[in-house]
């Protein structure tokens, strides 16, 4: 059972934080304190520090809940993800932190994307439970805008290589293709392909196997549509010539 929290005024809380900076082991002496102004804990503060993994592990070992929230709903994992602290994120996840626990609509993955930390985004995309593993058009556009270098890692989740043959062929399992393709249920301008085409990283992203598959599918669809239109026009042309000629022939 978690011990009762003590609420410290801003100055006293800051003094304690300063002391921990000098003597990290002192965090173990007062683990269950919160800043009175916003409810943040020592775990919130140190989660964003560099080289703070051991302090974080000490606080967790004593019993500070990994998913503890401040008054706004912010968690230590959100702080660590936003600040790019990989080791702290790992320590929190190992201690049972909820990988996709959100503050409002902001999950740890969203927090990393928002600050453009592509390495952290890639890391979180690979971690179990950090996102739904389903394609989300709004998130895809957000990722393209803030962390385009991590887009191919996101697309990898929908194109899983199952095995390789001795001839060099790959068996790939694709998922959510209809949603990613988009049309006709999604306006063309909002499809994944259209969004990528407007990105500064378009060349890199369009070389991904999933985007190449979408490109081929759209090209085949376009070719079929063009063939149907050309056939209809040709048929109309022949009919417009043939019918009056036959009808106008007295024999």
For the record, the count of structural domains works out to 2
Indicate the overall shape.
Answer: elongated
- What is the rounded Rg? 28 Å
- Count of helical segments? 13
How much of the sequence is in beta strands? 5-15%
Number of strands: 4
Secondary structure elements and pairings:
Layout: E1 6-8, H1 10-22, E2 33-35, H2 42-47, H3 53-62, H4 76-83, H5 86-94, H6 108-114, H7 118-126, H8 137-146, H9 151-156, E3 159-164, E4 170-174, H10 177-181, H11 192-197, H12 202-206, H13 209-248
Parallel strand pairs: 1-2
Antiparallel strand pairs: 3-4
Describe the structure.
Keywords: ANK repeat, Repeat. ANK repeats lie at residues 38-71, 72-104. InterPro entries: Ankyrin_rpt (IPR002110), Ankyrin_rpt-contain_sf (IPR036770). The chain is mostly helical and 251 residues long. It folds into two domains: 1-98, Serine Threonine Protein Phosphatase 5, Tetratricopeptide repeat (Alpha Horseshoe); 132-251, no CATH class. 53% of the residues lie in helices and 7% in strands. It has helices at 10-22, 42-47, 53-62, 76-83, 86-94, 108-114, 118-126, 137-146, 151-156, 177-181, 192-197, 202-206, 209-248; strands at residues 6-8, 33-35, 159-164, 170-174. It is elongated, with a radius of gyration of 28 Å. 28% of the residues are buried. The model has no long low-confidence stretch (mean pLDDT 89).
């Amino acid at each position: 059972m978690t011990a009762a929290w003590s609420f410290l005024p801003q100055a006293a809380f800051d003094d304690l934080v300063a002391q921990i900076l000098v003597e990290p082991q002192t965090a173990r002496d007062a683990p269950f304190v919160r800043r009175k102004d916003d409810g943040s804990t020592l775990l919130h503060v140190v989660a964003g520090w560099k080289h703070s993994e051991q302090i974080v592990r000490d606080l967790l070992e004593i019993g500070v809940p990994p998913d503890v929230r401040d008054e706004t709903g912010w968690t230590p994992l959100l702080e660590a993800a936003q600040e790019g602290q990989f080791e702290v994120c790992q320590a929190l996840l190992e201690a049972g932190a909820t990988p996709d626990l959100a503050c409002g609509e902001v999950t740890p993955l969203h927090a990393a994307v928002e600050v453009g930390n592509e390495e952290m985004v890639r890391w979180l995309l690979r971690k179990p439970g950090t996102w739904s593993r389903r394609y989300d058009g709004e998130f895809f556009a957000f990722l393209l805008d803030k962390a385009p270098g991590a887009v191919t890692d996101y697309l990898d989740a929908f194109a899983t290589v199952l095995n390789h043959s001795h001839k060099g062929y790959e068996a790939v399992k694709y998922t959510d293709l209809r949603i990613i393709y988009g049309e006709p249920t999604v306006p063309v301008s909002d499809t994944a392909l259209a969004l990528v085409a407007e990105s500064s990283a378009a060349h890199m992203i369009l070389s991904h196997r999933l985007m190449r598959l979408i490109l081929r599918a759209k090209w085949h669809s376009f070719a079929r549509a063009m063939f149907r239109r050309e056939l209809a026009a040709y048929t109309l042309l022949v009919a417009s010539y043939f019918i009056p000629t036959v009808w106008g022939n007295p024999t």
